[in-house]
Fold this sequence. Notes:
The chain has helices at 2-16, 18-38, 63-76, 92-97, 121-147, 152-157, 178-192, 194-198, 200-207, 211-216, 221-249, 259-283, 289-309; strands at residues 53-59, 81-85, 103-108, 111-116.
Amino acid sequence: xxxxxxxxxxxxxxxxxxxxxxxxxxxxxxxxxxxxxxxxxxxxxxxxxxxxxxxxxxxxxxxxxxxxxxxxxxxxxxxxxxxxxxxxxxxxxxxxxxxxxxxxxxxxxxxxxxxxxxxxxxxxxxxxxxxxxxxxxxxxxxxxxxxxxxxxxxxxxxxxxxxxxxxxxxxxxxxxxxxxxxxxxxxxxxxxxxxxxxxxxxxxxxxxxxxxxxxxxxxxxxxxxxxxxxxxxxxxxxxxxxxxxxxxxxxxxxxxxxxxxxxxxxxxxxxxxxxxxxxxxxxxxxxxxxxxxxxxxxxxxxxxxxxxxx
Length: 310
């Protein structure tokens, strides 16, 4: 019972302290909001959205090939790839260099010549692949026509699709964003700051001149130690739980499907910080230890963030 009384006393004392509530609750929430909002683009820089693709072409081919190519362009236009015929005064290569078109195609009696640009390499690769498929199928149809013209329609219709571009994602549907990242990082950092409260568990009794009375009370030192550690552990655990729930339901941070296990892991981190720095304060009674810990903790946070950003 003595242990729980001491623990409850420390919990009430921590939550009555406005500085504790501001530092353990408002501070991480504000950092999540600021950093998660400001650095949104940094977490989406690897995405590439492909919209309508504009392709310029010049037709100097035979009538048969031109008709087949016209039918091809009509079909791919449904997929967002738009072919525009160049007039006599337009230099297609220069238009591609100016990035006005993703690619330039020249049709002649020998086939098709493709000109792409490094500025639109992805779009150019899509057009080149489709154009290669079309030319190969046309050449097959020409050779079949020499042997059996009645089979040409079968060759052309075989494998025709309206969906020329079929997109398949190789990544998960949900990708961690800036808010997800900083929700985890800030909560982890605040869990380590539980050591600051632990550093004052013994020193606080000396400052308030209650240490002698506590030792003289009919209670063992083990009960005092367990009660103080338990109270600090519960108080910090409640702060972390509130921050996690706030980030999950207000900021929509993705904590995964096992929130309970994550909370238990953070709880062990809080226990480690409290226990380690509680005993260190006992054997090293220096007031500036708390500020030394801030520098150490910020160094750990910087290393942790740099590691995750690689």
